[in-house]
Amino acid sequence: MERVNQMIARRHKINSVIRYVLLIVVGFVMLYPLIWLIGASFKTNSEIFSNPGFWPKEPTISGYVKGWQTSTPYTFGHFFWNTFLIILPKTVGTCISATLVAYGFARFEFPMKKVFFSLLIATLLLPNVVTRIPQYLLFRDMGWLDTFLPLWVPSALAGDAFFTFMLVQFLRGIPRDMEEAARVDGANSLQTLWYIVTPLLAPALISVALFQFMWTMNDFLGPLIYLSSVDKFPVSLALKLSIDTTEAFDWNQILAMSVLAITPALVVFFVAQKYFIEGISSGGVKG
Description:
By secondary structure, the protein is an all-alpha fold. The protein has 15 helices and no strands. It has helices at 2-40, 45-50, 62-69, 76-107, 113-123, 128-141, 149-156, 161-172, 177-184, 189-200, 202-218, 221-226, 235-241, 251-271, 273-286.
């Protein structure tokens, strides 16, 4: 019997070793492009094409120094600031508006509620390209082109149906006992939402903020359509300015600025990934 237990324990150890080896190999394969990007940002422009490895033979920071200056009157820091000016109002507006709309759908009864919620879900099936032209014409007639308003306002009005649906699913898994007790004590709907529901929604709201942060940070088409002045460009468009299709350009500068561009999203994700995963899993399981 003891020998059988030893064989079983040995088999478990072998299976664990094989599992971890496979995970390490697969993880390395998936992370290799990112590792190569970081290494190539410290290479010279000629070494990028002559040395396929990720470790530079003669490391240099010239890509970061020259890339930060850009070919415009503005440094790359100016474009990071523009990105922040887009992300902060959009993220805050999304969290507030999506919470209000989701709370209405999850906790109140009103005429045609199911119809409106079905329409909300139906908008998730619409590709963004279908709504681009109508939105552009609307914002053009309102005089909002070449401003940040077309990037802010839809999110502030719960224009991102995915986040509203996500919060509705999360709210459906929260018991109403505390809310009913607050109403008995005289709290109105907004007070109940602020003092009772919002703290319980914290994991889901963190997930919403992270999603919106990363999506906005990586958004290229939105700013490209609505912004035309270089001084208003975010990082995504600033990277495009470094690429000149008519002349040779320095890839190490582009790669260096790409590393800086993805760093905020990676840092935010790894710092808050606990809440991110908790919000996603809770919303999916409880719904």
